[in-house]
Amino acid sequence: MSQLNPRQQEAVRYISGPLLVLAGAGSGKTSVITRKIAYLIQQCGFQARHIVAVTFTNKAAREMKERVGSLLRGAEKHGLTVSTFHNLGLNIIRREHKLLGYKAGFSIFDDVDTKNLLTEIMQKEYAGDDGVDEIRQLIGSWKNDLIMPEQALEQARTPKEQTAAVVYIHYQRTLKAYNALDFDDLILQPVKLLQDNPDVLEKWRNRIRYMLVDEYQDTNASQYLLVKLLVKERAQFTVVGDDDQSIYAWRGARPENLELLKTDFPSLKVVMLEQNYRSTGRILKCANTLIANNPHAFTKQLWSDMGFGDEIRVLRCRNEDAEAERIALEILTEHIRTDRPYSDFAILYRGNYQAKLMELKLQVHKVPYRLSGGTSFFSRQEVKDLMAYLRLLVNPDDDNAYLRVINVPRREIGSTTLEKLSVYATQRELSLYEASAELGLSEHLSSRFTERLARFKHYMDKLRQRCFGDDPIAALQEMLLDIDYNNWIRQNSSSEKAAEYRMANVQFLIEALKNTLERDEDGELTIEDAIAKLVLRDMLERQEEEADGADGVQMMTLHASKGLEFPSVYIMGVEEEILPHRSSIEADTVEEERRLAYVGITRAREKLTLTYANKRKQYGEVIDCTPSRFLDELPKEDLIWEGLDEAPKEVKQARAASALADIRAMLSKG
Ligand code: ATP
Ligand code: MG
């Protein structure tokens, strides 16, 4: 506690009512949460299992868990929940799925599944999937605002909204028929459940006696309602946030929730923190100057005594190639010159598409890196295949999964057969899986095909039994052999190397599943739960981190960097149309982009470098770029502009460094 300043201590000690800590970046909000969890357990007699802390991303949850973990002894933390909103929702659904009308082993549809299903529905209902992304966005925002399909239809005004509402109805119905939930349902369904069932609500309120929420400014309506429902009356909670870091309006986040809190909880106590412990004075000055261009509901003073620090560098590069090259070489040089680990460096960007070239350059110069987000592990073919098998095992109603695996590997079951099966199943209100061994099928299909379908079903039935037995992992390994999956991958890969890589992914997934099962302390996790968890990526990301504890430059989007900090930060593509993003310029929502830039800048502890390109290739065309307006908004006296001219010298230096690194690597290999 003595490590905290008086305001922070006050925030930690205040437990007699609802508390909001409203403060700028790096002022120790997250630190207050982690300390407070320890305080509640060690000083106030709370049991860990009565405490729930929620945060925004898996990465943030993981970090928080680690920080709390180091403050507590083993037994003290037993049963403590530190998770994302989605994981909390999943936990509630797992225990109450019956009341919600879901069977155990429900599936969770990820973004790709969701889009596929919507496309399918639109093709069926509207003979085309035009504007599917927009419709998906609309449905998502309805769900985040707790608007149910029928309501959506009632209040739909434009033709687009009407279409979306009709699709929403079909979509929700189909999900239910598949015994599946999408990501938004993970919050929406628990909220509905708690609203409709007072006794269940009571139970959860008893279980959760103290709640803490980090990054509160980014909660959307349904997340806020979930918190409100769970804490009501007793109102034992602490939320921390910063309105200047609200960057998820596009996903329904409501920074107004900060003000709403005061209305909903009149006894709310507000603590403001003003000292920043993260960044140099100069970095902080830049951040403050930039964000002063936005209107403010709350005035915040933020200062730091970390020394004024180096100038902020702005690198002007010839084109995007030179930009990525420059960053890679600089980091390499710095790493060698200062002996700083690579993990001290972060490269942040507005969109994942910017990462590709950057990755390439880092690879060329043999700079190790770690990429968060981006092409997700779960969008890879082989991972989707195996996941579909897993989903079908735990949820035989998952028609999507059925269709995905039925011909992986080839079982000579053609589309006509599947269509007939589908018609038959629909008529009898059966899942494809159930229908596939029905005797009645033989009226529609020749015995050759009914046998193939039945064989597959019998195989899966047997496999299911084994999976629910003592050793699900062994059963899955056997399954891979049974279906000769390695061979299938080989046939469908461009090279042996690609095939090996893909097989490693499959094993990685099984390994992840195994770890989830083993890590479960209470022994109450079933294989269904383990799979559901996997889909939430939480554990896989953790896996990745653990698997390569190796040093690496951290690459991620600005959005994903929220809450994190790094000694040296590069923000690339600081240009009009990138940051601020083109769509925000068009929609006149540049303020949110400014907050995003603010988030990026305030990640840096000591060094900050902003880069932009003069020219950039876009859709095969070379376009001229304009430096971002945000650069003009920064204090001139604190910036150093490095133009195109300096580049060659730097590049030469860095080339030398690159060669040196090669030699070192060779030497270390022996
Ligand atoms: P963000 O808004 O970016 O999420 P935050 O307000 O959550 O930031 P923290 O991440 O909790 O800030 O803290 C920023 C840094 O300051 C961390 O490295 C933390 O360890 C350190 N810190 C927090 N409080 C103190 C303190 N009282 N004394 C010294 N260091 C502190
Ligand atoms: Mg934080």
Automatic annotation (TrEMBL):
SUPFAM superfamilies: P-loop containing nucleoside triphosphate hydrolases. GO terms for molecular function: DNA helicase activity; hydrolase activity. PROSITE patterns: UVRD_HELICASE_ATP_BIND (PS51198), UVRD_HELICASE_CTER (PS51217). It catalyses: Couples ATP hydrolysis with the unwinding of duplex DNA by translocating in the 3'-5' direction; ATP + H2O = ADP + phosphate + H(+). Signal peptide: none annotated. The keyword Hydrolase applies. It is an enzyme of class 5 (isomerase). ATP binds at A23, G24, A25, G26, S27, G28, K29, T30, R278. It holds the Pfam family UvrD_C. Keywords: ATP-binding, DNA replication, DNA-binding, Helicase, Hydrolase, Isomerase, Nucleotide-binding. Its EC number is 5.6.2.4. Residues 281-563 form the UvrD-like helicase C-terminal domain. Residues 2-280 form the UvrD-like helicase ATP-binding domain. InterPro entries: DExx_box_DNA_helicase_dom_sf, DNA_helicase_UvrD-like_C, DNA_helicase_UvrD/REP, Helicase_Rep, P-loop_NTPase, UvrD-like_ATP-bd. Homodimer. Rep helicase is a single-stranded DNA-dependent ATPase involved in DNA replication; it can initiate unwinding at a nick in the DNA. It binds to the single-stranded DNA and acts in a progressive fashion along the DNA in the 3' to 5' direction. Belongs to the helicase family. UvrD subfamily. This is ATP-dependent DNA helicase Rep. It comes from Thiopseudomonas acetoxidans.
